[in-house]
Amino acid sequence: MVRLPWVVGVSGASGTPYAQAVLCGLLDAGEPVDLIVSRAARLTLLDEVGRTIRDAHWSDDVAAWLGRDVSEVRYWSAGDLAAGPSSGSYPVRGMVVVPASTAAVAGIALGLSKDLLQRAADVNLKERRPVVVVPRETPLSRGHLVHLLALHDAGAVVLPASPGFYAGTSTVQELVDFVAGKVLDSLGVDHTLFTRWRGELGAARSLGEHAGIGRVGSAPAD
After folding, report:
1. Mean pLDDT score of the chain, rounded to an integer?
2. CA-CA distance, 97 to 178, in Å (whole number)?
């Protein structure tokens, strides 16, 4: 059978935990992944979680970052413009850029293809495959909004890293997982990363309290 992965591009914006949660969610669902980490993202990973990804040791580095087996991950160097995902004939299901820096957003919107991440996103857009872009920047300038609108008009899903609080969240990880879950929803990938709205006010909070989970900034319920 032909391997049909999701391409995950990690750019240099703050928010590498979102990338980690999306990657783990895809792997938990049995989905193979092609991973591209930009040069700037390596610095952000080092700053935010004390890890980085080295091309020559990517398997060990990605496994340490994700805390799991990475046998279903294929890594491509961001500088390798001859890599598989640079061509529309390379079979993939679609792509996620998470987090998406404003520089990556602009490069994709303008078709600059300055590195493999931008080129792969451009390829998936032109092939009309699912593309989800997760910007993590605030506030947004007019230029940022123009580029995001261009991506929307090109067929991408623009999914800001804006966690919801109705799912009974009590930890930072749950807020991260909420965004990752919305990404997987956009891809049509099953997950259990957050409690879904059921049409009942306070239902998710009640579930958390019954499980002994306190609110953000409070002690756990007795």
Report:
1. 92
2. 16
Q: In what order do the strands lie in the sheet with 131-135?
A: 73-77, 33-37, 6-10, 94-100, 131-135, 157-158
Q: Where is the binding site for dimethylallyl phosphate, in residues?
A: 166, 182
Task: Give the CA angle between residues 165, 187, 21 to the nearest 5°.
Answer: 55
Q: Give the tens place of pLDDT for each residue, 178-208.
A: 999 999 999 999 999 998 888 888 777 766 6
Cite the annotated binding site by residue number.
Answer: 12-14, 38, 136, 166, 182
Q: Compute the CA torsion angle 197, 129, 160, 36 (nearest 10 deg).
A: 120
d(CA 82, CA 201): 52
CA angle 100, 161, 120 (to 5 degrees): 25
- Residue 165 has φ and ψ, to the nearest 5°, of -110, 0
Q: What angle do CA 67, 59, 191 make, to 5 degrees?
A: 45
For residue 159, name the pLDDT band (cuts at 50, 70, 90): very high
Specify the DSSP element, H or E, that contains 132: strand 131-135
What are the binding residues for FMN?
12-14, 38, 136
CB-based contacts of 13, cutoff 8 Å, min separation 6: 44, 99, 100, 101, 102, 104, 135, 136, 137
